[in-house]
Amino acid sequence: MDTFALPLAAFILTAIGWISREIWRWRKAKRQASHDASETLRDKKTLLEDIISKTEDTNRKKELSARLEEVNAALLGLYGERLRYTLKEAGLPTEDTLIANGQSQLRPQETLHIKELIEELETMPLFLSTHTLLMLASAYYYTERYQEAKNIYDKILKLNPDDPDTLNNRGITYDELERYDDALADYNRALELRPNDHRILNNRGNAYSDLQRYDKALADHNRSLELRPNEPNTLYNRGNVYKRMQRYNEALADYTCSLELRPDHLDTLNNRGNTYSKLGRYDEAFADYNRSLELRPDSHFTLYNRAYAYYKLQKYEEALSDYNLSLKLKPDDPHILNNRGNAYSDLGRYNEAFADFHRCLEISPNHANALTSRGVTYTKLEKYEEALADFNHSLKLNPDHPYTLYVTARLLSLRGKTDDALIYLEKSVNKDKNYREMVKTDKDFDNIRDAPRFKKLIE
Hints:
Layout: H1 2-54, H2 58-89, H3 108-122, H4 130-142, H5 146-159, H6 164-176, H7 180-193, H8 198-210, H9 214-227, H10 232-244, H11 248-261, H12 266-278, H13 282-295, H14 300-312, H15 316-329, H16 334-346, H17 350-363, H18 368-380, H19 384-397, H20 402-414, H21 418-431, H22 434-441, H23 452-457
């Protein structure tokens, strides 16, 4: 039996290898044929346009224009087919229905290819096909050109105001534009038209979550799961709501259920890793980040998350390594620059820290976290006036941020301003009870430690 099984196994492996090579060759040939056909059609289009511009005879011009329309239609079909194929390869729907945050499923080369196809489609008379408009809107969305996507949905909804799928897609696009009330209006109208659509309920739950209306978000996700139990995307989104509510164990349960149904979903692995990190379960966090990077080594987002976990463990060199890789993949990302600046600051490499904070604030002048981070670094260098200016600016943008309130209190304590320090410290502790424990051992509060209000605060 073993003697027979070995040759059979070898034959099967050989056959599989041959089939895989043939499929690859067929796909390559198909891509080349599509490319050649589009080149031929583009040349014909250019020639016809040139002839039409030089033709004075009206009948002849009409005849040539009809031919040009045929060429345009053929080109449009080819471009559309190539765009459809690219989206399908990335596991994304080709038109009609958007997947919220689906852009994270695209590899950089796929995003680049879609951008090239968009440029080709934009040269075409898009009024020819609503179907093509929907596909172009999806391409805009997945390449983060949200305003252009929204503009196309506006056009389609003028023709058909009560199409629930287009209302849903525009709602998703409004979410990305942070126009959450507009998103809710579209979802509400779509649900009036189709009350039991689990996808629209799920998406409305996301909008409620972004507005911090967590009870309503959970109600929508729960209703969506009643209609479609074990839907991995809804489980993932409900996990996100629990995570935002700091109900980490419930978040972990949803992420784990989602991954059982969809084991290699990058965003779910990342968010479960982040949740493990919040709970101090770093071994499990790194397992999720590492698995995510096995699946997608060029994921700047996963590298960013793993870097932050290293940072929390005070493994600053490892954090810097991941931040550097992440910035190579997504240069000038303000969040990565801010966090790398913090790592440099904690290593005492202040010039590099300030370079990152300054660059971050050039790109995003109202980046509250970068202002706080730069203020903390100024405080380390005893540049108190500069630090206080940054803290004040940050608190104008985010008045209730507990960490910024805490470091402002710490700065005022160092300057001996007891009453002002206690005001900020009380606000910080009221927002996040963890700071009550931190202040007990923070030497920068020694100047005000004997104040009765301080003693009462840490009781």
